[in-house]
Amino acid sequence: MSSDRNSPFMTTSDEQPIITRTDRGLTITRTRIALYDVMDYFTAGYPAKLIREKLCLTDAQVQAAISYIEAHRAEVEAEYQQVLQIAEHDRQYWEERNREHFARLAAMPPKLGEEAIRAKLQAWKNRLESKV
Q1: Which end of the chain is more exposed for a tag (fewer CB within 10 A), N or C?
Q2: Considering the entire predicted model, what is its pTM?
Q3: Could you give the CA distance from residue 118 to residue 2 in angstroms, rounded to a whole number?
Q4: Which among 25, 44, 43 is positioned nearest to 34, based on CA atoms?
Q5: Helix (H) or strand (E) segment spanning residue 26
Q6: Rounded to an integer, what distance in angstroms lies between the CA atom of residue 1 and that of residue 17?
Q7: Handedness of CA 23, 26, 27, 30 (dihedral sign)
Q8: What does the alpha-carbon distance between residue 10 and residue 12 come to, in Å, rounded to a whole number?
Q9: Helix or strand or coil: residue 24?
Q10: pLDDT in tens, 75-116
Q11: Separation of alpha carbons 57 and 20, rounded Å
């Protein structure tokens, strides 16, 4: 990040950076919102006001995030691709690790009195899968 104090993504009025790097990547300070969340909405064409409402951010936070994305687009996109690859790797790891456990759970007979709710859940699952 630049050390320019006039940069809209650098500091707030209390001199704290709006965009910070954490162990989760670039985030909006004092939130759990990653810069990539803003980037997804921004890239999809959402206006700043709607991004602010969806992510419960201030105007200054949204503007700082958009400014940072625009000023560092190649760097942010490259880092985001790495984040996506790590997330996919983690998803595959946990899916494989839990496959047998989930299969055992699915094979268990329903507890007495739960047959009706299981039937409803299965019908819901079938509807969702048919839409994909």
Answers
A1: C
A2: 0.62
A3: 56
A4: 25
A5: strand 25-28
A6: 10
A7: positive
A8: 7
A9: coil
A10: 999 999 998 899 899 999 999 999 999 999 888 887 888 888
A11: 15
> How far apart, in whole angstroms, are the C-alpha atoms of residue 112 and residue 122?
17
Provide the 8-state DSSP code for 114: -
| Residue 42 vs residues 56, 68, 70, 122: alpha-carbon distances, Å | 15, 12, 10, 37
Token pair 């009706």 is found at: 116
In tens, the pLDDT along 61-73 reads 999 999 999 999 9
What is the C-alpha separation between 21 and 25, in angstroms, rounded? Answer: 5
Domain ranges of the chain: 19-131
Residue in the block written with tokens 């007495």: 112
- Structure tokens given for 126: 């079938």
**Residue that has been written with the tokens 């409803």 in this structure:** 120
Angle at 15 between CA 3 and CA 47, to 5 degrees: 85
31, amino acid identity: T
Please identify which residue in the block is written with the tokens 């503007």: 63
